[in-house]
Amino acid sequence: MSQQLVDQLVALGGLEVRDRGATRGAVTVRMLPETLEEATHALAGKASIRLADMFGDAATLRLVWALDPGYLLTETEIEDGQYPPLSDVAPAAFVEECEIYEQFGIRPANSKPLNRLMLPPHAGPDFPRLGHRPAQPPEDQPPEEVHASHTVGGQAFEFPFGPVRQVGVESLYYGLVTSGEEVVDVYLFSWHKHRGVEWRLRGRTPGEAMFFAERAEGLSAVAVGWAFAAAAEAALGVTAPPAAARTRAVALELERLYNHAAAMAALCQATGLTVGQSAAEIALERLLRVNAAAFGHRYLFGVVEPGGTTRGPDIEVLRRDLPAAYAELGRAGDALLSTNSFVDRLEACGILTTEQARRLGLVGPVARATGLAVDARLNGCRPRSGSADGSPYGDHPVTIVTGDRGDVLARFRVMLGEAAESVRLIAEFLDAGTAADRARLPRGGGQGLGWAESSRGEVLAWVALDEDGRITRARLRPGSVRNWRGFDDACRSQNVFTDIPIIEASFWLTAAGLAR
Amino acid sequence: MPLWFARGLRRGVVTTRYPARPDDSAASLPTPPAFRSWRLTREAADRMVAACPGPALSRQDDILVFDVGACTACGRCAAVAPDVVASSREFELAATVRSALIKKIPIRGGER
Question: How many domains is chain B partitioned into structurally?
Answer without folding.
Answer: 1
